[in-house]
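Thread: HEAT repeat domain-containing protein, structure

OP (GT): Posting the sequence first so everyone is looking at the same thing. Length is 223 residues per the record. Can we get the structure tokens written out before standup tomorrow? I want them in the notebook alongside the other entries.
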Amino acid sequence: MAHPSTEEISAQLDSPNSRDRMVALAQLRHVPAVEAVPLIKKVLDDEILQIRSMAVFALGIKHTDECYPILVRLLETDADYGIRADAAGALGYLGDPRGVEPLIRAFYEDTEWLVRFSAAVSLGNLKDPRARQVLLQALDSDEIVIQQAAIAAIGEIRDLEAIEPILRFAQSEDWLVRQRLAEALGNLPSPKSFSALRYMEKDNHFQVAEAARISLQRLGESV
């Protein structure tokens, strides 16, 4: 089945029917970035929040020079915290190292936990050591999901010096926190990681124990 042309998608994005616009956005996955981004921009201010969210996500997937400044502007100025969180997430997918600083600012300055969570996840996706300090502070968040994101991100940036601060979560009451820790330690080869993972391999939650087993195997293959 032939994919619609960019002209057809553009016309569909102008449709008064919100479902048409959603379908058109989904069809842009088949369109080269340089052609897709101008079309995505048409619905960045759509009246339907879900369409705006889809458009922001699409900017993180379609890499052109236009995407980065648009996403930073949305992260820093959009009135809707969901869109700010989407922009933070898209910056992680975009993979542009310039995104580290605005994501760090968002973590410190945005009052909405969802934005801060999304910023922490994206800092891990960018794998940039400049994120170390903010991620260590995120470990002390009152929001458990932010703790989870910070632990995972520390594993992604492979910060060996952060092993000690995250080991305290080996006995967290939240099994997802323990699972994120087990996964992160698999990227942090050290005697402390081996010891913690052997302990966590006996965790009473299957997914934590399995994550620890997989990480032990990964560490064993890396030495």
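GT: Both are above now. Quick notes for whoever picks this up: The chain is about 70% helix and 0% strand. The chain has a mean pLDDT of 94.
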